[in-house]
Design a protein that fits this description.
The chain contains five helices and eight strands, in the order αβαββαβαβββαβ. With 181 residues, it is an alpha/beta fold. The chain is globular and about 40 Å long.
Length: 181
């Protein structure tokens, strides 16, 4: 599937404002919350309002195998995984984290800003996208809009559909990896 609607050339990563324009043009509702830059789940938890739960809160892992194939895993923030188990399930043998240079080259973001929305910068659809099965139970997801000084709340089905329409089909990472190894 050819990706359409990219307001950038082949050497320029999308800016958050361009992302918001694309969401608006697609008729997708979202809310932006601005905050200090956050780099970890612990930092994200520390800026939430008191009493706010972890429903729809995510963490993202940008991974590669020895052959250079890449995966973006969007997981519930409390999900604990063993990378070797996930690699085996996804047929990668072994995973390692991508370098900041690879992150910028393929997703167009800096460390700390990894997000499924960054897949829009992967114009050749080289990164496989997996979402944690547990997140399918959440109506809203909270992701960075290409910058870790903001968080966007967006309906799960809108996010998945938007990415699929731009060349990034969503695959499901099962809850119990041991049954799929």
């Amino acid at each position: 599937m050819e990706a359409v609607g990219y307001p950038m050339n082949e050497h320029t990563a999308m800016a958050p404002d361009q992302l918001y324009e694309m969401l608006d043009a697609a008729g997708i509702g979202y809310e932006v919350i601005y905050h200090q830059p956050i780099f970890t789940v612990e930092q994200a938890r520390s800026i939430r309002p008191k009493g706010a739960g972890d429903e729809g809160q995510v963490k993202n892992l940008f991974l590669k195998n020895k052959k250079g194939r890449m995966w973006l895993l969007t997981l519930h923030e409390s999900r604990k995984i063993v990378l070797d188990d996930v690699a085996q399930v996804l047929g990668a043998r072994r995973f390692s984290f991508c370098s900041p240079e690879r992150l910028m080259r393929y997703l167009g973001v800096l460390p700390g800003s990894v997000s499924p929305l960054a897949l829009l910068n992967d114009r050749e659809s080289e990164v496989q996208f997996y979402i944690d099965e547990v997140l399918l139970d959440h109506d809203l997801l909270f992701v960075h809009p290409l910058d870790n000084s903001a968080t966007v709340s967006i309906a799960r089905h809108d996010l998945i559909g938007f990415l699929e329409n731009h060349g990034h089909p969503c695959r499901i990472l099962p809850l119990d990896l041991s049954q799929h190894a």
